[in-house]
TrEMBL record:
UniProt KW Transport keyword: no
Keywords, comma-separated and alphabetical: DNA-binding, Transcription, Transcription regulation
Family matches, as Pfam families: TetR_C_24, TetR_N
Protein name: TetR/AcrR family transcriptional regulator
Keyword rRNA processing applies: no
A Gene Ontology molecular function term of the record: transcription cis-regulatory region binding
Transmembrane stretches, start-end: none
């Protein structure tokens, strides 16, 4: 039997993963079969199982790819030598952008994965925690520098930010337009000033 090169194996893996990504986006997790994915990738059903344990493993791999790619950008924003508000805006803007530009992955996570019985304790949940922890670190750095209240409930702020973004962008995930810049700026301003009217003359 001929030996398959590492590059050929990686190409097959990537082809199957790409086919799964598209199939899940078009048909949803439950509506997609391994046979659908194999056919789209141009391989046999059995070959799919050589690279992935099952359909759930494929879904997790699709979301892992999304998370890891997006976290590279978020970590770069968090590491900037920039004022707290600039980094906060950057994180919020990139998160909204992810929902809009990678709507299929976000739709899969919200509707197919987070509600699944096996989500708690899963690898995808751990990735989500790593993802949200980047925002938490930025808030902690703001507290350390004295620009954020020290008595703030960081987890509450995290939930407010991600919850607001998810709610506001769900329409975009389903195809309706959303102004990313305006949404990010508006959320940052709301966090900065709250609901109370600003004193006259305050910028």
């Amino acid at each position: 039997m001929p030996v398959i090169s590492a590059k050929r194996m990686q190409d097959r893996h990537d082809s199957i993963l790409g086919a799964a990504r598209e199939a899940f986006a078009q048909r949803g997790f439950e509506g997609t079969s391994i046979a659908d994915i194999a056919r789209a990738a141009g391989v046999s059903d059995g070959l799919v199982y050589r690279y992935f344990q099952n359909k759930r493993d494929l879904l997790n791999a699709v979301l892992t790819e999304f998370y890891e790619r997006t976290m590279v950008d978020l970590e770069a924003i968090a590491a900037r030598e920039a004022p707290f508000e600039v980094r906060l805006h950057g994180i919020i803007h990139r998160h909204i952008e992810a929902f809009v530009l990678e709507a299929d992955a976000c739709r899969l996570f919200i509707s197919e994965v987070r509600t699944a019985a096996d989500y708690q304790g899963s690898a995808v949940q751990q990735l989500n925690r790593r993802y949200t922890s980047i925002l938490v670190r930025i808030i902690e750095s703001g507290i350390a520098k004295g620009v954020v209240r020290s008595d703030i409930d960081i987890r509450l702020v995290r939930d407010v930010i991600f919850g607001a973004i998810e709610h506001r962008t769900w329409a975009a995930v389903n195809g309706r337009p959303l102004d990313i810049d305006a949404t990010a700026a508006g959320l940052v301003q709301l966090l900065r000033f709250g609901l109370m009217a600003r004193p006259e003359g305050e910028a």
